[in-house]
Structure to design on (99 residues):
């Protein structure tokens, strides 16, 4: 399973998502985790970057809504504990289990 973490350096939340994804990749050797730095508006538009961090699983963003804006911003996720800068590890585990 291909998992790409899209991020930009000015948003610290990508490090939380990265930690969760690294933990899950260690649990599941089928996960190939890559990172992609998004630095420009043009790159954000080309990748349909909906904010940092964005997690792409096998080419799709499982957390995206059709009306989410594209651009260089910190992304907010709905979690069981309320809005957060990253999905929880359990949310990511569920998404990765579906592949």
């Amino acid at each position: 399973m291909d998992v790409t973490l899209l991020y930009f350096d000015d948003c610290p939340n990508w490090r939380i998502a990265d930690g969760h994804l690294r933990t899950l990749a260690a649990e599941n050797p089928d996960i190939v985790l890559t990172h992609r730095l998004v630095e420009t508006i043009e790159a954000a538009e080309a990748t349909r970057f909906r904010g940092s961090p964005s997690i792409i699983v096998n080419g799709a963003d499982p957390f995206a809504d059709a009306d989410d804006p594209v651009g260089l911003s910190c992304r907010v996720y709905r979690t069981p504990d309320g809005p957060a800068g990253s999905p929880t590890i359990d949310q990511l585990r569920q998404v990765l289990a579906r592949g």
User: Anything to note?
Assistant: The longest helix spans residues 13-27. Strands lie at 2-7, 32-37, 54-57, 77-79, 82-84. The chain has a mean pLDDT of 95.
